[in-house]
Amino acid sequence: MGIKIKLAAVAMSILVISGCSNNSQSDDEKNHPTMNHNMEEMDHSTMGDMMEGHMSHDEVVLLNDSTGENELKIPTLLSRDNEEDIVYTVRAQKGKTEIVDGTKTNTYGYNGSFLGPMLRFEKGDTVKIRTINELDEETTFHWHGLEVAADADGGPHDALQPGEEKVIEFEVTQEASTLWFNPHPHGKTSEQVYNGLAGLIYIDDENSKSLQLPNVYGENDVPLIFQDRVFDDENQLNYKSVMNEDGTIGDTLLINGTLNPKLTVNKEKVRLRLLNGSNARNYTFKLNTGDSFVQIATDGGFLNEPVTLNEVTLTPSERAEIVVDFSKLDNGSDLALINEEGTILLPFELSDAGGKVTKVPGVMNDFSLSDEEINLPVTKKIELFGMMNMVSINGKKFDPERIDFTQQQGVTEVWEIYNKPDMMGGMIHPFHIHGAQFKIISRNGETPPENERGWKDSISVAPDETVKIAIQFKHKGVYMFHCHILEHEDNGMMGQVKVE
Question: Residues of the signal sequence (predicted)?
Fold first, then answer.
């Protein structure tokens, strides 16, 4: 019944558009002339493909439960090449990885065959990174959430050809946070991430060291990179065969590249750094026991106070740090991290050992949103619209030669982001801005929830929702802003802001 209703709605929309084609343009047509023209010209086959793609987000394919047969892999900490200059070398490589027992899967990775290491910076560091492209195709090295000059950001303008390398240098000026890095070549990002290009960045500062939070990497401070994939009959990641223009979604979950993972923990507080590294899938994380946990950080830093939650939702590229107190959970029961459908994402195995005594302090940060920022006028309006390969921002697709906005370095402005429903109702668009962290002022005019009152670089925007943010760029140059459904990004749902 739902399919028939949607089909009728689509057909009616096309008839309305066609019937009005000889009249004066509506506001929507003025804003999206290319979009509307293409919709008039669509044949039944195209409409069928669009419905199938869009519906995959209304009726998302379920993930398989983790069997818990493999201990979770922990990304290695990348060693410095030169202690004095703080030089790292990061290589984009291709290789073969045994994700499924007994099979070598063709994959991409950083400094290895699949995914990448963790880079650890400290606030105040001057960092040099040598990036090398050892792939057979162009790529970039984008430092997601890092506040760096545009020529070090790794956007689509900074593509390295096979065999090329580039050294970037920057000072770490932002507070403790969990960031990540990934490729960003225009039109190729989704496939390269899908094949395995993703890695972690930790930033530490004096505040994070003083908080006495769980901080033993890989033991009670554990990164979790969630990515859904589809394996073909030969256990390969055949992206082109499963690619969906509206966002590629799989039935098999990998966490840190581990299939059917489990995490063994001691009876202590454990800090989980959650990263939605998927191309398009949204995750709502909860404990299968119904127990609560506390969120301590957003994308770009600590919350002022821990927020007690029973679940937290992350759209692609968003991060959250949570603390689960396993000393208070029954080790006789089957403990697991699950999603909104009840799928077992990550089983926990409690050891008999007691862990370190740590605490979650009542005050962790001094993040603030001033009255002045709240009352600033809106200077930039973003309208997210469309589906499949017909997505746009403000009625336009990405043009590397076009600057969509300008903003002054060091000046805070308010951006208003609106997700305009399409003829099938619309879908959530995760919106990301390069080179800066921002503050959420409001969602549909209301104060954001407590766990979003911290630094962000990506934000979920639901259909017909309007979000206002306050953003300031520390560096000059041209930065991207885009939907972080990677197929939408590749299809041109991206713009540019020039910071002068």
Answer: 1-26
Sign of CA dihedral 228, 234, 240, 245: negative
Helix axes 44-58, 2-19, angle to 10 degrees: 130
What tens-digit pLDDT sequence spans the chain (500 residues)? 333 333 333 333 333 333 333 333 333 333 444 444 444 444 444 455 555 555 445 678 999 999 999 999 999 999 998 777 889 999 999 999 999 999 999 999 999 999 999 999 999 999 999 999 999 999 999 999 999 999 999 999 999 999 999 999 999 999 999 999 999 999 999 999 999 999 999 999 999 999 999 999 999 999 999 999 999 999 999 999 999 999 999 999 999 999 999 999 999 999 999 999 999 999 999 999 999 999 999 999 999 999 999 999 999 999 999 999 998 887 667 899 999 999 999 999 998 777 777 889 999 999 999 999 999 999 999 999 999 989 999 999 999 999 999 999 999 999 999 999 988 899 999 999 999 999 999 999 999 999 999 999 999 999 999 999 999 999 999 999 999 999 999 999 999 999 99
The domain made up of 221-354 has a fold known as: Immunoglobulin-like (2.60.40)
CATH number of 73-210: 2.60.40.420
The correct CATH number of 371-499 out of 2.60.40.420, 2.60.120.200, 3.90.550.10, 2.40.50.100 is 2.60.40.420
pTM summary value: 0.90
Sign of CA dihedral 258, 262, 268, 270: positive
Cβ 296 vs Cβ 272: under 8 Å: no
| Cβ–Cβ under 8 Å, residues 62 and 343 | yes
User: Per DSSP, what are the bridge partners of residue 87?
Assistant: 82, 128
How many helical (H) and strand (E) elements, i.e. helices and strands, does the chain have? Answer: 10, 31
Q: How is residue 196 annotated by DSSP? A: T
CA 314 – CA 444 distance, rounded (Å): 19
Contact (Cβ atoms closer than 8 angstroms) between residue 273 and residue 221: yes
Distance in angstroms (rounded) separating the CA atoms of residues 162 and 149: 24
Structural element, H or E, at residue 483:
strand 477-483
Residues β-bridged to residue 297: 302, 321
